[in-house]
């Protein structure tokens, strides 16, 4: 009797289980309720080596921040949505978010050395000129050049190793400046020596490539913001992308309120003054400025956003290149510029060159029509005098000094200017 009851119970249980399975197959909601919840799968951000430019290494900037990308600690703005797609690869720069603890995020700029089109054209030029093919291993091709062979054998970065490179920063190089580049090169873990013993062949090729295409990331490394230099902080590189602290371009402030415009104009003049006179005796000058050259942090502080057109002359040592060395050309001279472009002599750089450019291109757009008469008329007059190429250096200095005195009382002291607030309440400096 007991065995019959057990058998009956077993059959009843089997029938009940069959009914539940059939019901679940007909009713998806019941299946979802009955089954245990699936573990949450963290979305995967699909990175292409091509997008980052890692497939081009060691003809790239470096890899110091790649782990941050792959660990999702650097995200592009649109990655905060559920559809995780990389932005278009043809853009020159991207806005992103950066974290060290996965809790607090800060804005960063993710930038290419040059446009992807120019990168691609330069890559084709390397293969065509050096190996007579349309595609090739960039590293293998570049290693065959005389310049790279000299770099690989060199113990110290000397002026002859950078002769003919198109970067304005290296147009008039001194040994002191080149030592600073090697000593502070941030893409290697143990920088600090002026000798290149701590640089592998791979490191040397990456440094040479960066200096040849765009010296902007090198300037950020050797003149860091923590020492008071007006550049955004360099955070690292991955392939052909550079990550730095985020700033809004000056063009975003051309329609700003008068007190904001006055404040930014004064900061702009102060930055140019510090570029001409500083404790290290380097003279910085621009070869070109536009609305994206300068940027503004969230606290209202103005910085140099794009240093690619910034030249340097060492006032202590001067340039150590001869005219013949300045005119030297090879494949590294022509990666992003026309090889036929004229070389500007170091002796022809005008001391007030940057001021004239800013008075011509930026200050009129920032200050035009912002103030009541007769103040606006005086501002326009000073700007016109400053922007005149035929005005001598003393005349430009006088015009800029009068413009600054006119703008100072037009600023306001409030939380919009966090970089000097509340100090501006108590100090005449602000």
Automatic annotation (TrEMBL):
Looking up PROSITE patterns in the UniProt record yields:
PROKAR_LIPOPROTEIN (PS51257)
Q: Which GO terms describe its cellular component?
A: extracellular region
Annotated family: Belongs to the DIPK family.
Q: Where in the cell is it found?
A: Secreted
Cross-referenced InterPro entries, in alphabetical order?
Answer: DIPK2A/B (IPR020519), FAM69_kinase_dom (IPR022049)
A GO molecular function for this record?
kinase activity
User: Does this UniProt record's set of keywords contain Transferase?
Assistant: yes
> Gene encoding this chain?
DIPK2B
Q: Which residues form the signal peptide?
A: 1-32
Pfam name, any one: PIP49_C
Q: Which ranges carry the FAM69 protein-kinase domain?
A: 208-388
Q: Which domain of life is it from?
A: Eukaryota
Question: Keyword Kinase on this protein?
Answer: yes
Query: What is the protein name for this chain?
Result: Divergent protein kinase domain 2B
Organism lineage reads as:
Eukaryota, Metazoa, Chordata, Craniata, Vertebrata
Chief place of localization:
secreted
Keywords, ordered alphabetically: Kinase, Secreted, Signal, Transferase
